[in-house]
Design goal:
alpha+beta, Thymidylate Synthase, Chain A, six-stranded mixed β-sheet, binds 5,10-methenyl-6,7,8-trihydrofolic acid, binds the ligand O=c1ccn([C@H]2C[C@H](O)[C@@H](COP(=O)(O)O)O2)c(=O)[nH]1, Thymidate_synth/dCMP_Mease, nucleotide biosynthesis, Thymidylate_synthase
Length: about 290
């Protein structure tokens, strides 16, 4: 994928050396932006072998809304370093995507959805929570018959919760995304505060592109573009050689995705098939914890 290789090249050439909490220094760039057209194929990197199955398990873990990795860690180790022995995490994307806490005490005049909303439920511990994915999907469906829907430019999912993020071991990196409809195309923009170009970004790109395709199918749109802003886009110093090796490789034809004909919330791992994926060999990168 040209856009990815351009980013690698740009950050290697223009990035500034920076220290960070991990002890492995990075070359960092401020606010990198790229976009890919999903009608050209599925943007799974071909210049190294990608672990599509790990990424797919991770996406279904987000969609499950689980706040822990007790199930995810049976299938992939990619989140193990940030959880405790019981699989508990201080922050989990899916918990906020699907079960964002809703306050029950309001200031005068302020509004919050309550249990009468179709996206709000009360959990067994008494907490009211909001399903942001459900809200986006239902609104996108309503927009098919009402293009002037009042929430048409408010299709936002937020994984950031300040009271959690300020003290968490690992607050969300890809912390908010927005959907946008143009014609019959569904576009998605992801904002990421911090992006590990060798390891995290290829997963994030593949994950959100697939999510956009799944939501487009569910709601009756064609997949449009995936656009990605990465605020601190960085290359860890011990990833430079592997990325330079990738730059020497010619990108191959993009793969495709087939999604089973099922309602979105019934889709599982086996319902998503990666078709015609060919890639250059694996490049091993060590993850900075
Ligand atoms: N430094 C750092 N980079 C990240 O990308 C990252 C974090 N930390 N912390 C939280 C999550 C975990 N993520 C990860 C963690 C590991 C891999 C990884 O090791 N990928 C390998 C092998 C994948 C596998 O074994 O399935 C790869 O080659 O892609 C990828 C994403 C993304 N995030
Ligand atoms: O989905 C993800 C999750 C994490 N990352 C990377 C970005 C950074 O290299 C680390 C997080 O460290 P912070 O000090 O909290 O920024 O993980 C990613 O690229 N994608």
């Amino acid at each position: 994928m040209k856009q990815y290789l351009d980013m690698v090249k740009y950050v290697l050439e223009n990035g500034i050396k920076k220290e960070n909490r991990t002890g492995v220094d990075t070359i960092s760039n401020f606010a990198y932006f790229y976009r890919v057209d999903l009608s050209e194929g599925y943007p799974l990197l071909t210049t190294k072998k990608m672990y599509f199955n790990s990424m797919l398990k991770e996406l279904f873990w987000y969609l499950s809304g689980e706040e822990h990795i007790k199930n995810l860690r049976k299938d992939t180790k990619i989140w193990d370093a940030w959880a405790d022995e019981e699989g508990r995490l201080e922050t989990a994307y899916g918990r906020f995507w699907r079960r964002y806490p809703v306050p029950e005490t309001h200031l005068d005049g302020e509004v919050f959805a309550d249990e009468s909303s179709k996206w709000v439920t009360r959990e067994s511990n008494g907490q009211l929570v909001f399903d942001q994915i459900g809200y986006v999907i239902d609104t996108l469906k309503e927009m098919k018959t009402n293009p002037n829907h009042k929430n048409g430019r408010r299709l936002i999912v937020l994984a950031w919760n300040p009271g959690n993020a300020a003290i968490s071991k690992l607050p969300p990196c890809h912390y908010t995304f927005a959907f946008n409809v143009l014609g019959n195309k569904l576009n998605c923009h992801l904002t990421q505060r911090s992006g590990d170009i060798a390891l995290g970004i290829p997963f994030n790109l593949a994950c959100y592109s697939l999510l956009t395709m799944m939501i487009a199918k569910e709601c009756g749109y064609e997949p449009g573009e995936f656009a990605h802003t990465i605020i601190d886009a960085h290359i860890y110093e011990n990833h430079i050689e592997g990325l330079k090796e990738q730059l020497k490789r010619e990108p191959l034809k993009l793969s495709k995705i087939e999604i089973a004909d099922k309602p979105f919330d019934e889709l599982t791992f086996d319902d998503v098939k990666l078709v015609d994926y060919v890639s250059h060999p694996l490049i091993k990168f060590e993850v900075a914890v």
